[in-house]
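so ive been stuck on this for like two days lol. basically i have the seq below and the ligand is glutathione, smiles is in there too. i just want the complex predicted, nothing fancy, no docking runs or whatever. if the output looks off dont worry ill sanity check it later, just need somthing to start from for the group meeting slides
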Amino acid sequence: MAEVTLYHWEPNANSGKPMLALMEKGVAFDSHYIDMLNFDQHKPEYLAINPQGTIPAMTHGSLVLVESTAIMEYVNDAFDGPSLMPESARDRLRIRWWMKFMDQWLAPSFSMFGWKFFVGPNALKAHGQEKIEEQISRIPLPERQTAWRKAVFGLFSEAEMAESGRRISVGIRMLEAELGKREWLASDTYSLADVNGFNLAYAMPLSQPHLANDDLTPNIMRWLRAIYRRPATRECWKLGRTPMASRVEILEQDYIPPRDESEGISSGVR
Ligand SMILES: N[C@@H](CCC(=O)N[C@@H](CS)C(=O)NCC(=O)O)C(=O)O
C-alpha cells in the first residue's frame, strides 16, 4: 500500500491536477476512482474522508488534503522529483496568478458547459428523475445541490451560458497571447500552471473548435501537444474511464482546422 491515496474522478479539472502533479513527480499513489456520475462522492465511506463530498481528496499518512490546487502545491513541496515551481519569485508570482485566474474565473465557465452537456444528461439517463432528486437532496454543500439541479434539469439560464461563453473566449485569447511569450504558460520550465491549464484546456480544440484551432491559436495548440506527449500525461489519462477523458486523443491530430461556430459550444464529448 502506498503512503499516498488519491480519491479522484476523471483526469480533468479538478481531479486531474493532483493526478498529473503526482505522476510528474514520480510519486507512487493508490488511485481510488470516485464515480461522480454514480454519486460515490456522497457515500458515507467518502464523506468520512471529505465531509464536503467534493473530489479530489488526498491522504498522505494521517494528513487529509482537499482543494486541488493546494494539493498540487503540497505534492510539489513534500516529495522528491522534478520541481514544478521554479526558484524565481517573479515566475512563482506568474504561476500563482494564472492558477488563481483559472480556478476562480475561467474553470467555472468550462465546468458549466461540461455539466450542462455531459454530467447532467448522463447522470439523468443512468438514474432517472426520481432517484436523482433523492441523490441531490443528500448532497452536503447547498451550492453543489444547485449545480446538480441546474445540470440535470437543464436550468442553466441563457444569460449564464452566454457569460460562460464570453469568459471562455476571453480566456482563450489570454492563453494564446501568454503562450506567444514563452514555451510554457508562466515560466521557462514546465510548472504547476501548465498542469492546471492542461486539465482545463486539453479538450478545447474539440469543445470550442471555432475558438481553439491551429490557424487561430497556434501557441495553444503547440503547448497542448507538448504536454500531451509527456509520459506522465499519457499515464494519467489512462486512468480515465468515460468519454470525457478520451477527448484528449484530439491532440494526436497534427492539424486541427477552424470550424464553424455552430459546431462549437458543447462539452466536446461525442
Ligand atoms: N475547489 C475544489 C472544487 C472541487 C469540486 O467541486 N469538484 C467537483 C468535481 S469537478 C465535485 O466534487 N463535484 C461533486 C458533486 O458536485 O457532487 C477543488 O478544486 O478541489
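The longest helix spans residues 89-127. Residues 14 and 82 are 22 Å apart (CA to CA).
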